[in-house]
Design goal:
heterotetramer; A alpha/beta (148); B alpha/beta (321); C alpha+beta (340); D alpha/beta (284); A: 148 residues; alpha/beta; Rossmann fold; 4-stranded parallel sheet; 5 helices; D: alpha/beta; Elongation Factor Tu (Ef-tu), domain 3; 2 domains; 7-stranded mixed sheet; 6-stranded antiparallel sheet
């Protein structure tokens, strides 16, 4: 069946959320009925430092238009130091992607605690708006996934 | 070399890791010498670019002691490997050899010099005997990129020095971040085009990885069968981007900038520019750091500070699209 | 024999590319490789050897074999389309052309590899004689004449002219289609050029390698030689030599999951890689020495045993100039052949 | 060939598989299952000879060579006995009847049942999953009983639970005239009243006469000692056949993986006579 392609750009956004803070923050946003776009797909990870740079690239390869990583605020990590390491890694990775010419607004790190449902929803709204303004991710994707 | 013979004869070491004379005047190969007689083929000249620290990972697992010749910049790699417990310092006898810079045969060939029979040095010039007649080429123009931004002539780890003095000064050298800065100053679109052009040449031969002293994993993540954009495929340019970014990331904070990756790349991709970007960022964000300078400090990516910069610094700094 | 001024080559390329795809050596980011001709590209016919050989045009580094979808447990298979449009490869050298013959023996023998066969059928090769052979060349050892490339069309650069001579029916057809650009040429200049090339080749350091020891009867003797243990030492186990080689034909078949289906593709593989022979229950070549030996034994002994003594090396010298550790087949031939 | 949506404007290639439907799965041992496979039309996928192999694949997981364990005389389906030992076999073991896989083949040579083995007395020696390729020959021979002499089968495994095709062995082979079956397991086990001991030692205990051809298949270490045992008993290498196994990708002697010496195991093998193997570099 041929479905007519709509011209409206619906970004695909992957959000890696740490189990202890940000995922609970997303939960709170949901139970508080704070709206954030359905384009955001949340992937729960045990800690923000579980996110390997390869995860981020893989998400882009498979067609993500933006990737955001949410973790506990510095000092609040469930495993004490995980988010510190994640912070350094992501800083360097994002800088490298920027260096390769990928638009630097496509990646973001935000610290969201379990109590910050509002912050979660505003962050996601902002991020989705940003990706909307950047448009489709064409520089960092695998053609094979797009044509299929 | 005489010293190597002595040490082999008196049993201090049972093998010598050095370079063996090639058959073209510019292709010496890394080699083990097991007896004083074999050392007759030993050679050390400007084309001995190979960083023997990589081979020491294997040699450290062999029985008895190995003598290795290291150039000043190779000792950074060796030091870094000591830090990571990948080489065995006790079983290694290091002779630090002086270095006047290593040469890039491709630079000579790209200048249109063909049919090379032999190469000798005469002052600042290389005299090149070819089947199409004798040619000359300035020594400095034939240097590998890494040698034009030499880290210095000091050996960081050695048992004895030959042809080099402690604290010897490097000649006037360029700024190694010059090209990185130039790229940073470009518009993202231009940068993207630059890298697209370079990385699309990649044939995924893995020479960069296999020559890299920091790539010492027993099994590389890109060799996993369970990983579907693994290894040798280059179906889509994404594969190469991913491979090179991840490889550079995995050696970030451990890369000593020895330049082997760019030297060995059959397609001449300036891979060092990826590594140097990480080095430059680390220096700027977390303070100056030179991998391989010591054997006990914490690597930048296994360290942290409460007040580290946030990743958003990347957006704030740049912002152009 | 036809002739065309060098400065009119862009016209020739445009004419050929008008009717079919045209692949030729293109300079990109300081390296020369075969690529599709368009008006924007920088054609480079001066570089003697492209980094990757022209085998890419017939046996691409990776190609999809078929895509497969799984809908509610029902599989469907959609084979990739075979090449059915003519194309031209311009600028191959005599050694590369011989490399194709080596591949032909593998892919065109029963059972025929239809992907390769289709490309061979539709591709016309224009080969250029090597004006200035290099020190890494040793094609003469394998009986290849760099001055007389044996392909569909042979071409020679002499002074400001390109001389052109069709050798096969396919070559005739191509010539016919661009004939109005040519003027008639005579043989004298070309014959002179051939002599010069052959004289240079005589002088090359590797032109007189001795291959007499590499015979199928000596398989076990060569296999058991203690020299392998010594020779392989510098090998870094990368795949540079295999990927730049015009005759290496080993490939891997892999799946790529696109999220909505599976693409099964094949890509070049290297016998130098540790997982080349890895099976679920183990690996029968566990050391780099064994893998190193396999590569050279295959080129110098196993392949000739199956192909009437034809070696699976054409002496292009790419591995000689590209190996990161300066190892290469010449060193192996010399050492095992008893010369060094 | 497989269902193709391109309208038939291509010539099919050896590398393009057929779609097979699993119609039955038998659990033989804790880690071996036998899969019965037919085409979507319910018919046999292709004809083969005993000893030949086929490439079985689950798209997205992988593809591997398996020997066809059913006999060519079976006109309805093909069977593969597959041991769970890697990522592909893991997935296969999780499948159910009705699931689809892809199959291409048959590949390789076969045991010379119509030439060198015809009219001969036969001795089959198998260890563990090594029975899979031999089972094809055994059933072929039993179905063409008049063409062959005596049939003896020596089969051993780690334990009684690891004997593959036990039901068929007991119900069919043991009850056929002129067929002697010897079973053995490596270690004592409750409820086992048969022979205990490794295959090579049992072989010597029985002491076969040398007026026959021998077909051996099993783990490399077993093959090694069985060969030594047979030589001791007076068999020559020309009398002994076995199958080799190497990593394969294409199945048609092109991808270079299974190359040893000038042979390609997938095309020139997997069945080799021992004197042929002796001429190959020892890389198997």
């Amino acid at each position: 069946m041929q479905v007519e392609k709509t011209q409206v750009f619906r970004p695909k956004i992957v959000a890696f959320c740490c189990n202890w803070c940000s995922y609970a923050g997303a939960d709170l946003a949901g139970s508080s009925r704070l709206a954030y776009p359905a384009d955001v797909k949340i992937i729960r990870v045990p800690c923000s430092c579980r996110v390997n740079p390869m995860f981020i690239l893989r998400a882009f390869q498979r067609g993500a238009d933006g990737v955001i990583l949410c973790g506990c605020h510095p000092g609040d990590c469930h495993y004490t130091t995980g988010n510190y390491y994640a912070r350094r890694r992501m800083t360097l990775l994002f800088s490298m992607l920027d260096y390769l010419g990928v638009e630097n607004g496509r990646t973001r790190v935000e610290w969201v605690s379990a109590a910050e449902g509002v912050k979660f929803s505003t962050t996601m709204n902002e991020f989705v708006a940003k990706i909307h303004s950047l448009g489709e991710n064409v520089r960092l994707g695998d053609l094979r996934c797009k044509n299929d | 070399m005489e010293r190597a013979k002595e040490l082999l004869t008196d049993g201090t070491v049972v093998r010598v890791l050095g370079w063996k004379q090639g058959d073209l005047g510019y292709n010496p190969e890394p080699a083990y010498f097991n007896s004083p007689e074999e050392l007759a083929d030993f050679v050390y000249d400007g084309f001995c670019g190979a960083n023997l620290s990589k081979y020491m990972i294997q040699a450290g697992k062999m029985e008895r002691n190995t003598l290795v010749f290291l150039k000043p910049c190779d000792t950074y790699s060796f030091n870094q490997l000591i830090k990571e417990h990948r080489v065995n310092r006790e079983k290694t006898y290091i002779i630090g050899v002086g270095c006047k810079g290593t040469l890039d045969i491709d630079k000579i060939k790209n200048a249109g010099i063909k049919g090379i029979e032999s190469i000798s040095q005469d002052g600042d010039m290389l005299k090149i005997q070819t089947i199409y007649g004798e040619k000359e080429f300035p020594f400095d123009d034939a240097l590998l990129e890494r040698c034009t931004v030499c880290k210095g002539k000091t050996h960081l780890v050695y048992d004895e020095l030959i042809g080099a003095q402690e604290g010897e000064e490097a000649g006037p050298k360029g700024n190694r971040f010059e090209m990185v800065e130039k790229l940073e100053a470009m518009m993202p679109k231009e940068r993207f085009a630059f890298w697209q052009n370079e990385l699309s040449k990649c044939i995924r031969c893995n020479a960069c990885r296999n020559a890299c002293p920091a790539c010492s994993c027993l099994k590389c993540v890109f060799d996993s069968n369970k990983f579907d954009s693994a290894q040798k495929a280059n179906v889509d340019t994404f594969e190469e981007q991913m491979f090179h970014v991840i490889r550079a990331f995995h050696v970030a904070g451990r890369c000593t900038d020895c330049g082997e990756c760019s030297r060995v790349c059959p397609q001449g991709i300036p891979l060092h520019l990826l590594n140097r970007k990480f080095i430059k960022d680390i220096n700027e964000f977390y303070g100056p750091y030179q991998a391989g300078e010591d054997t006990d400090s914490r690597a930048p990516l296994t360290d942290y500070m409460f007040e580290d910069v946030e990743p958003s610094v990347v957006t704030e700094r740049g912002g152009k699209h | 024999m036809y002739q065309i001024k060098k400065d009119r080559l862009p016209e020739l390329f445009a004419a050929m590319a008008g009717a079919q795809d045209l692949f030729l050596p293109i300079r990109k980011a300081d390296q020369t490789n075969y690529g599709l001709w368009t008006e924007e590209v920088q054609v480079d016919l001066d570089t003697l050897k492209t980094v990757k050989s022209g085998k890419d045009c017939f046996f691409p580094q990776s190609e999809t074999l078929y895509s497969c979808k799984n809908e509610d447990g029902k599989l469907s298979i959609d084979p990739a389309k075979l090449t059915d449009e003519p194309f031209v490869v311009f600028g191959m050298r005599a050694c590369d052309v011989q490399g194709l013959k080596v591949l032909d023996n593998v892919f065109l023998n029963d059972p025929v590899d239809s992907f390769y066969a289709a490309r061979r059928e539709h591709g016309t090769v224009v080969a250029i004689a090597c004006h200035e052979p290099e020190e890494t060349c040793f094609c003469k050892v394998f009986g290849i004449d760099a001055a007389n490339p044996a392909s569909d069309v042979a071409a020679w650069f002499v002074g400001e002219d390109l001389y052109w001579k069709a050798l096969t029916e396919k070559g005739e057809r191509l010539t016919e289609s661009v004939k109005e650009l040519f003027t008639d040429g005579d043989d004298t200049a070309v014959e002179e050029e051939k002599k010069q090339i052959q004289a240079i080749i005589e002088k090359l350091p590797y032109s007189h390698l001795d291959l007499s020891r590499f015979t199928p009867e000596k398989t076990m003797e060569l296999f058991d030689s203690p020299l392998w243990e010594e020779m392989y030492q510098p090998c870094l186990a990368c795949g540079t030599c295999t990927f730049v080689c015009p005759t290496c034909q080993c490939y891997d078949i892999k799946d790529f999951n696109t999220g909505s289906g599976v693409q099964r593709y094949r890509c070049w593989d290297s016998c130098m890689y540790s997982d080349f022979t890895m099976m679920a229950h183990g690996n029968m070549r566990t050391s780099q020495m064994q893998r190193f030996r396999q590569r050279f034994m295959h080129k110098l002994v196993y392949y000739p045993a199956n192909n009437d003594g034809m070696f699976s090396c054409v002496g292009c010298g790419r591995c000689v100039s590209k190996c990161p550790a300066s190892l290469n087949i010449v060193k192996v031939i010399k050492k095992l052949g008893g010369e060094a | 060939m497989g269902e193709c949506t391109c309208g038939g404007n291509h010539k099919s290639d050896m590398l393009i598989p057929m779609i097979g439907v699993i119609t039955d799965i038998r659990t033989e041992t804790p880690d071996v299952k036998t899969f019965r496979v037919v085409g979507r039309d319910g018919k046999k996928l292709f004809e083969h000879m005993p000893g030949q192999c086929a490439m079985v694949s689950v798209p997205g997981v992988g593809e591997a060579m398996f020997s066809i364990t059913s006999s060519p005389t079976n006109k309805e389906f093909q069977e593969f006995s597959i041991k769970r030992c890697g990522s592909l076999t893991d997935v296969l073991h999780g499948m159910n009847p009705g699931d689809e896989i892809t199959v291409r083949g048959p590949y390789g040579n076969a045991f010379p049942v119509e030439t060198a083995l015809k009219g001969e007395n036969l001795l089959f020696i198998a260890g563990g999953i090594g029975l899979a390729p031999l089972r094809s020959v055994i059933n072929y021979v039993l179905d063409n009983r008049e063409n062959y002499g005596t049939v003896e089968i020596l089969y051993g495994s780690r334990s009684a639970d690891d004997l593959v095709q036990l039901e068929e062995i007991q119900q069919v082979w043991c009850k056929t005239d002129g067929v002697d079956v010897y079973l053995t397991i490596d270690r004592e086990q409750e409820g086992w009243d048969g022979h205990v001991g490794f295959v090579p030692s049992y072989l010597k205990e029985i002491g076969f006469t040398t007026d026959k051809k021998v077909l051996v298949c099993g783990p490399p270490i077993m093959i090694k000692f069985v060969l030594a045992g047979l030589t001791e008993m007076g068999f020559t290498k020309e009398q002994i056949y076995t199958t080799l196994e190497l990593r394969m990708k294409c199945g048609i002697g092109k991808c270079g993986r299974c190359n040893i010496g000038s042979k390609y195991v997938c095309k020139d093998g997997p069945v080799f006579r021992f004197d042929e193997i002796d001429e190959l570099p020892p890389e198997y």
